[in-house]
Amino acid sequence: MSIVRHVAMPSGPIPTYDEGAESMGKARKKLAKSKAKVAKKVGKKKLRTSKKTKPGLAKATKKPAKKPAEETPGKKDVPRHSTAEDMAKRQREISVAEFFTKNRHLLGFDNPRKALLTTIKEGVDNSLDACEEAGILPEVRVFIAPGKEEERFRVTIEDNGPGILKKQIPRIFAKLLYGSKFHRLKMSRGQQGIGISAAGMYGQLTTGKPISITSKTSRNKPAHHYELEIDTKRNEPRIIADETVEWPVQRGTKVEIELEAKFQKGRQSVEEYLEQTAIANPHVSLQFVTPNGETKTYKRASNELPVQTREIKPHPYGVELGVLIKMLHDTNARTLQSFLHSEFSRVSSRVAKAICEKAKVSERSRPTRIARQEADNLFKAINQTKIMNPRTDCLGPIGETLILTGLKKQIEADFYTSVTRPPAVYRGNPFQIEAGLAYGGSLQAEGLARVLRYANRVPLLYQQSACAMTRSVLNTAWRNYALSQSAGALPSGPLIIIIHMASVWVPFTSESKEAVAHYPEIIKEVRLALQECGRRLAVFIRRRRKAAESQRKKAYIEQYIPHIAIALREMLDLSKRQETTMVKQLTDVLERSRS
Amino acid sequence: MSKIAKQIKDTATSVRTKIQRRSKPTLAFPLRSLSNVKYHPKQGFLQLKGKKKVRTLTVGTVKTFAQTLRMMSQAKTLVEDDEIMTKREAYYVSKNWEDARFDEQPESDTVIDDIEALFQVNREQLGFIPEEKGGEVAGKLIVIDRDSDTNKPLRIDCTKFGSGAYSIPISIEHLKFETKAKFVLAIETAGMFQRLVKHNYWRKANCILVSMGGVPTRACRRFIRRLADELKLPVYAFVDCDPYGMFNIYRTLKVGSGNAAHINRYFCVPKATFLGVTPQDIVDYKLPTHPLKEVDIKRARDALKNDPFVQHYKAWQDSIRQLLEMGVRAEQQAFAVHDLNYVIEHYLPEKLAATKKFLP
User: Fold this and answer.
1) What share of chain A is helix, strand, coil (3-state, %, to 5)?
2) What gap in Å lies between CA B162 and CA B165, rounded to an integer?
């Protein structure tokens, strides 16, 4: 039981781990050795779930399961078939935290290297969201300090944001799915309220250390310091330390997490993430201290904060049946008509009435009744009724100028361009696509172009090939824009392509937010943005080629004209001076004809 | 100053005048291709129609223009100093010209050919001599040459080379001839020539044998031409039955080449006729064959379409069509299938019995 030894260290209190966390710890500790074990476990798990799904049996045993069932006597070592009672003993609620402990790859904690990046990413994203919402130009500092043991690091993320109220801190940082962003439709980096608490939980699982938070909301108030753990069984915070400390800043939040990680440079590294963040967020000032003590600074290039975006209600077209039923249950509205009108955007009373008529239900019926009986009809009716597209002032694109500013700040190139598309809609969700190109200069002339993908200003570093944005880059005919491109590949040349999708709800393919799902509307908008950028790039490349060609011709003329003069001098017995004059005259004649 | 040196100087002056007037200098070359030649059956050779290619000095032509002028200057020096230079040597001399040097010899050869055409003379007159040997002669001919030291006449009896042969020199204008032979037999391959020499075929047939060794050189063509003109001898060509033998070797021997039409008047043998091997011979003598290659077919079709000589003679058009239809070619050594000396004992005597039937 390695995990028990591990958490029994004198440094902190001993948390009681449930079965899930325990097996998790085991798997972590001796990964290579336990391969066989894991396989066995997986097999067992499968068996269990398949039995669980026998419908009649499971239901029938649900009630008696509350009381402890009698042990059936028998030989212990011999595997035998389970009775309904045995199974009932094992059946209990799974907490969100437990689920993610077992499925941490869903949140981007697949391996130590990625865990480090995800932790920093979640921290920085939260800081930036908070700063922008409070109208503060963000200054974020990231420290990675080596831990006492190998492959352990202490990550600190510090911002100058508005701070967090004392009573909120435990739940924000030590409870999964707690946050301000999931229940509203508003463009922000975070969406779910999982990220930072998941990072804390990962740290807790791999090092046994609690997550540490210091926050200050104003100059006159003291800073609060918390050390928190997640009770993974209940998905509730457990407070290890709670004190008031001196922190000589005006306001801000500092998060420290110790975790098992691997620090690496290059592709998909922390540094790459920060650099790309700096490109898409020129209003941010970033400082990064590596485990080796190097300091990297990404200076602020613009004092313009992103426009505060409006929160919107969901558009009827974007709602799934399940969500619709839930909304019908939860609403305060008395009638169906007022429910539709008040809970959705772009549904006027008239449109609401039209939907009701189409669904053949009375607009005066109670939403809770509809939820049980006629939600299906209502759902179909919504999709058959013509409803205006959602308003788009809820979107805050970076803007063409600031994309250029960001690109110029981090990338030394000869040519930059950017395009911000008008807003569009996928499945009832407004979104807006922006694209930018940097070409030439210090960029590598050989090899394929680099694609930087962003969703709500957050760089996406993993799963490039699974992303709708990448698909659009591949589908664009770059050869039309004076670049070379092999079939089915990225264009090649000294090129960086950046694509940004701004939306109240970015449709990621997984919880770890790495790739955007393939909605045709999104692919199309990206393509249109890229084509516009491509046309401008082509003008630049062609002009440059023409200039180079003309330069080459000029050199060519200067190379051979002297020989014409030499030959004529030899044949006509001219003097050296006459020869020189002739070179001048000839150059004149040819230069004139060239232009 | 010789006529040719003056011509060069005049051209150079015209170029300079243009430059001084701030206009683009030009050089006008006769177009050197089959499309710019016509066939005069009376005069008997391909001659220029007069289409000219004007090379104006532009960015695109500046390199060739410079090279042409430098080569012209070289020719002027050669003429004035009474010196000679092979085309290979000319290529090496250009290596002193820095950026204007030639990278490969074919480039310098083209420029020399251009200059030759520009002044309507053969390159020997410009001091450029070919690398190649002129061909070989055996049989009833006495060549009267001069000893270069004593300047005394040298009588060379071409019957007295045994299994060897007399070698045609590069320059032949000073030679004189005596003969009692009845005709000249011009042979494509050295192998067939060797067989006929070995068995003293010239004695049996009372003739002069000339080995052309592929496409005849200018010296070889000039040599045969003088035999034909001055000794009033008929010339029969004996080559492979394929488009190369017919149009590269025989056509060039008889009417000259399309590429150097400006000098064809000296280097052609209008009296020559085609003994064989004809497509009909393949049938008549049951010769073993090879299928026509892609290039053969292309060359044959091109001859039908573009060659003014072929267009003039229906007999040739028929023969080409027959060959294309058969789709095969045969070499002159193919007679060995019957017997090594079948060609001496049967083929040549049988053909020579009816010289009127030779292809024109």
Assistant:
1) 45, 20, 40
2) 7
Question: Is A564 at the interface with chain B, CB within 8 A?
Answer: yes
Band of the pLDDT at B317, cuts 50, 70, 90? very high
Tell whether pTM > 0.80: no
Residue B17 structural domain: 3-129
Q: What is the pLDDT of residues A300-341, one digit of tens each?
A: 999 988 888 888 888 888 888 888 888 888 888 889 899 999
Q: Is B295 exposed, middle or buried (0-12, 13-18, 19+ CB in 10 A)?
A: exposed
Q: Let me know whether B163 and B81 are in one domain.
A: no
Cα separations in angstroms, A252 against A131, A141, A248, A278, A281: 9, 11, 10, 20, 19
CA distance A206 to A199: 11
A182 touches chain B (CB under 8 A): no
Facing B20 at nearest CB: one of A553, A570, A585 = A585
- Percentage above 90 pLDDT, chain B: 57
Strand positions, DSSP E, A151-235: 152-159, 211-216, 223-231
Q: Give the number of other Cβ atoms within 10 Å of residue A546's Cβ.
A: 10
Residue A184: its pLDDT value, please? 65
Catalytic residue, from B39, B91, B92, B313: name it: B92
Residues of A in contact with B24 (CB under 8 A): 589-590, 593
**Cis geometry, peptide bond prior to residue B277 (ω within 30 degrees of 0):** yes
Looking at the structure, do residues B233 and B340 belong to the same domain, yes or no?
A: yes
Which of 2.60.40.3410, 3.40.640.10, 1.10.8.50, 1.10.3720.10 would CATH assign to domain A316-384?
Answer: 1.10.8.50
**Hey, are the CB atoms on A563 and B66 less than 8 Å from each other?**
yes
Q: Where are the domains of chain A?
A: 1-53, 56-69+77-92, 102-298, 316-384, 393-595
Residue A564 is nearest to which of B9, B23, B65, comparing CB atoms? Answer: B65
Question: Looking at residue B142, which CATH number applies to its domain?
Answer: 3.40.1360.10
What b/e readout covers A15-33, taking b as 16+ CB neighbours within 10 angstroms?
A: bebbebbebbbbbbeeeee
CATH of domain A102-298: 3.30.565.10
Tell me whether residue B92 is one of the annotated catalytic residues: yes
What is the average pLDDT across A37-43?
43
Amino acid sitting at position A259? L
Picking from B22, B58, B62, the nearest residue to A588 by CB comes out as: B22
The minimum CA-CA distance between A587 and chain B, rounded to whole Å, is 10
**Who has greater pLDDT, A255 or A5?**
A255
Tell me, what's the ipTM? Answer: 0.71
A459: phi then psi, degrees, rounded to nearest 5: -65, 140
Q: Is B196 left (phi over 0), alpha (psi -120 to 50) or beta?
A: alpha
**Does the pLDDT at position A8 exceed 60?**
no
CB contact under 8 A, A561 and B15: no
Same domain as B124, residue B30:
yes
Q: Which pLDDT value is given to residue B46?
A: 84
- Number of A/B CB contacts below 8 angstroms equals 78
Q: How far apart are CA B63 and CA B67, in angstroms?
A: 6
pLDDT of residue A58: 41
Q: Residue A369: what residue type?
A: R
CA dihedral in degrees (A525, A526, A532, A536; nearest 10)? Answer: 170
Chosen for mutation from A551, A556, A559, A563 (greatest number of chain B CBs closer than 10 Å) is: A563
**Cα–Cα distance measured from residue A32 to residue B41, given in angstroms and rounded to the nearest whole number:** 96
pLDDT at A41: 44
pLDDT at B81: 87
Tally of CB atoms within 10 A around B26: 14
Which one of B7, B9, B16, B93 makes the best mutation probe of the A interface by having the most chain A beta carbons within 10 Å?
B16
